[in-house]
Amino acid sequence: MRIRRSLSLLTLLLLGGWAAPALADSPTCSGSEHLLSWPSGNPIWEMCWLPPSLSVGADGSSLEVRKVYFKGHLVMRRAHVPMLFAEYNSSTCYRDWKDADAAFLADHAVQNQLGISVDPPQATTSCDRSAAPVTAYGDCPFQLPGYPNATAGCASGVSLEDGGDHVTLTTQHSAAWYQYTSRWTFWSDGRMEPEFGFGNNDGTGNETTHWHHNYWRMEFAIDDPANAVNTISINDVDQTAEFSDLRNATGGPGGTPKTWEVRNTTTGNGFRLVPGNDDYLVPTNESGRGFHTVDVMGTKQHDGEYADRSDNPLGACAMNQSALVNGESIVNTSVALYYRVSVRDTSHDEWPPGCSGGTCQAQDSMVCKKRGPTLVPFGPWTGTTPGQPAATVAPGNVEVTVVQGGSANDMFGLTNSGDVGSTLTYTIDTAPVTCASPAPVAWLSRSPDQGSVAAGATTTVTASVDASGLTAGSYTAMICVHSNDPAHALIEVPVTANVLVDPNDVIFANSFELP
Asked: Tell me: the pLDDT tens digits for 178-236?
């Protein structure tokens, strides 16, 4: 006969006696989406990505990242480029397409998979190659001597390069002679740097000053995958309705640049968008044609509303901000942040208007120009350490009731409540009195005595009491859990064994008593 403590581990779970810790999350990619986890062991950044040819929206939306997670926290549902324009200093203008993958040069190890670039030192697009004012370098391999070679070649899609303290996604897509570069760099400290490059593969349009306009759309959902209720601020002042805005290099507090923030008001986690230095070089409506008059838009996020219109006609020159910014409330709702960058490709003797000779800017129409902001994290998540395990046990003690000569057991859970991607490794031994002096305990054993636990998982440890050599009474000892949790490298689990006289022995003895 044996008697066990009535509240087992399972009972405690069912009765709510042990609350499982809140777990960090990670994306689940589906369909044509590809998963990026970086670093591979204890990821700081995880996301799903799509090449331009598979991106959403009318005529695509360039490199698209979805379900972006930082240290196990959701940041954005989606970030992409649904609006892209080419505007000439004449009657000509285009609303370019963003879904035609174009070949660029990259090491085979990083083409559409996470790897470390070997040769060339980083993925090279037309924009990376074009540095001469009027020279076109053609398509990949862009007249670079020695390429393609045994380790690097031309391929379309996305390169994923591990830079040690950052990971970079690069792609190139074309619209006729234009070769557009789209990059996202994700840093270990939480910074995000989107970059867009405006290139040309054959010099078409080289003799006419023209502009390119790119609009990023970032669908934020910080710490809120279900409802995606985030707040947008301008210089840390919360906004209540959709808005459009302009960059201002001295428009922030104390003459600093104006910034835009998105945050979760409950957790305090957020990102601050800071314009890049070159983003100020081309102001809104520099052409004077009235096509592009805003730098930033904060809107209510609607499923399927990616751009200012649902189609993408080639000659629709103007971006219609009123189709996106139309007075809707952005309080307690899903939000999207749009950010524009523009470049001017200047031809000879054409800029500024009315210039002549030395008053004109030098021609730079084939020099590829790259633009983009930095998104800087703020809030509690910046202070956490990714990949760190955390050991917890529940319940925190073991109590077994057993009869003489019998055996019984009880269980406790060992949980890794640490960061996403972490692994808790452990060993378990026993001690008669304190884990400072571990030693075998004849009547106590445990199983398993070593192993590992993934982030968010729980392993069950069984403590077994053998009372075959024990007399009636109470016995105590310790189970010692050693782990790689730096904060709790040792956890002591007290064990109490209550040994009872076997009732069968009492009945047998009484049967020989005389009346």
From this structure: 999 999 999 999 999 999 999 999 999 989 999 999 999 999 999 988 777 899 999 99
Q: Write down how long the chain is.
A: 515
In terms of Cα–Cα distance, which of 482, 476, 358 is closest to 427?
482
Global pTM? 0.74
Secondary structure of residue 187 in the 3-state scheme: strand
- For the four alpha carbons of 100, 104, 108 and 114, in that order, the dihedral sign comes to negative
Half-sphere exposure of 359 (CA within 13 A, CB side): 5
- In three-state secondary structure terms, 402 is strand
In angstroms, the CA 11 to CA 7 distance is 6
The set of residues, in sequence order, having a beta carbon less than 8 Å from that of 78 and lying 6+ positions away, is 56, 64, 65, 66, 217, 218, 219
Cis peptide before 352 (omega within 30 of 0): yes
- Supply 56's token pair: 């959403």
Do the Cβ atoms of 323 and 309 come closer than 8 Å? yes
Rounded to whole angstroms, how far apart are CA atoms 38 and 164? Answer: 10
With contact defined as beta carbons under 8 Å apart, do 190 and 381 qualify?
yes
Interatomic CA distance for residues 376 and 80, integer angstroms = 18
